[in-house]
């Protein structure tokens, strides 16, 4: 029987949706049934411009032929190979291709299936790295306020989002947090703020409090995406690098959002010219099409584990789906699409147009800040007194009704379109948001 692609299930009860207002959604569902290029198709047949690259992941847009074909072909050729003690060529090929575009000094790839798993992997690697080198006292981890590092226990511990932490008990110990990098005096700055590098100095205080010999790693998003596009002030990341290096502490960049072209370079580490010891990635690695993540490391981190008898497993960590053949094929086709279409360069070229477009919203009702970098931007709204998040959520619903997909976090509207976006789409996206803001209560 042919499937009616406009059909939606009558009973939406069984699926407990993640990070969703389930009851609100199920009363008025917003369903996508197809996607191509810059657009989604809704169940009622409308076209919606994708202003968010799905969830910051479809950097090459949707239904890209090379990716679709690679997945189909791989499924028919080798569907699965055991991830432990066995291999298949595409996992090695993809790792080489990732290293080709990674910053010089990053040499190894450990596969995961998501950003959250990449974070857990990197945190475990950091602690085990020090232990392998005879510094087993280094177990403490330092994150940052308003950081998002996924939803597993390690990630919510180093993360700095109150709602993601406070409901989940007492496993969050052994962790400190740097202050976030959002300073009110930097409101409406275009791109990276000049002021605020001093915020990194707090790391010296935290290290002194515990002793450097107890600290394993510092993890930050080079540019914090999920809590509303918080940029690193000029000189800030350089300071974090200098302080961590001085005390023998590993620096981890969580590049789950910033990786694969979002800022106009392959990775934020290149955009900001600061080399971490490890980088966590996911999302754009496979254009969001098949779940896959990866932790990228320096040779120094990797080589610390390559000791002992050669027949012994060096690292007791990994996932059934690490380097899964279909995900690997998808990753190769994705990186090939980025390269062939010059999408990272395209993001850099479009960034000034994007910047001017988004900052044109300054002065509209409720707008208290606008931030941008690469093809990423945020518009912060004054919350309704006593009803935080409600105003931005209404803007999201109104934009959706008018055929544009944005994202909200608290009262911040975040946008991160696919890197294939055209100027007319930018005009439509920002124009629609402007119309919505003008009418918003
Ligand atoms: N780290 C960062 C910086 C992210 O933005 C995200 C997701 O948005 C994650 C980790 C978690 O990724 P996932 O949802 O794939 O587990």
Structure characterization notes:
It is a single chain. The chain is α/β, with parallel strands linked by helices. It has 2 domains: 22-60 and 342-439, Aspartate Aminotransferase, domain 1; 68-340, Aspartate Aminotransferase, domain 2 (3-Layer(aba) Sandwich), CATH 3.40.640. It has helices at 22-27, 53-56, 65-77, 89-101, 115-132, 153-158, 162-165, 202-210, 236-246, 268-271, 299-305, 325-340, 343-359, 390-401, 423-439, and strands at residues 32-36, 39-42, 47-50, 106-112, 140-144, 175-178, 215-220, 250-254, 278-281, 293-298, 367-373, 376-381, 404-405, 407-409, 412-415. The strands form 3 sheets. Strands 4-10-9-8-7-5-6 form a 7-stranded mixed β-sheet, sandwiched between helices. Helix 3 (65-77) runs antiparallel to helix 12 (325-340) and helix 4 runs parallel beside helix 12 (325-340). The protein is globular and about 65 Å long. The model has no long low-confidence stretch (mean pLDDT 96). The structure holds pyridoxal-5'-phosphate (PLP).
